[in-house]
Q: What sequence folds into this?
């Protein structure tokens, strides 16, 4: 059963995640629709930028404490981020990608740029949902771990 602290942290984590997601999707859509980058490359850039924002806010607002120094925390965060983006999200995008999601939207009559936009964002939602549990668990237990029994 989650503690009050864990519930409070998860609520804050969710708000930070929502704002980071808006940043992530804005960059992803600009890179795919306007710059013409492939979805996996655009996702790596957008997820990396939004993750840096997320790291800073989670450290200062959500978890408010780290047991190890700033450098070790940042290294652990980067390792978890690399696994999240390059393994979990990239694998999901490679499997689902725009091809499969474009087919879904073609079946309901979407065409052209609308179909591509919907397909890109649907694939990104699926990839994000597949990595959110990993991100919270790893950040809470390892990246921003506290020595306080109140925190853990």
A:
């Amino acid at each position: 059963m989650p503690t009050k602290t864990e519930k409070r942290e998860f609520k804050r984590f969710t708000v930070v995640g929502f704002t980071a997601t808006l940043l992530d999707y804005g960059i992803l859509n600009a890179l795919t629709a306007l710059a013409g980058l492939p979805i996996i490359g655009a996702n790596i850039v957008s997820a990396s930028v939004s993750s840096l924002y997320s790291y800073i806010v989670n450290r200062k607002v959500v978890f408010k404490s780290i047991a190890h120094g700033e450098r070790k925390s940042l290294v652990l965060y980067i390792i978890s981020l690399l696994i999240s983006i390059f393994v979990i999200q990239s694998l999901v995008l490679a499997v689902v990608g725009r091809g499969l999601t474009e087919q879904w939207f073609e079946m309901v009559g979407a065409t052209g740029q609308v179909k591509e936009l919907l397909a890109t964002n649907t694939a990104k939602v699926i990839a994000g949902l597949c990595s959110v549990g990993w991100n919270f668990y790893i950040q809470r237990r390892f990246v921003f771990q506290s020595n306080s029994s109140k925190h853990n």
User: Anything to note?
Assistant: Residues 112-143 form the longest helix (32 residues). The chain has a mean pLDDT of 85.
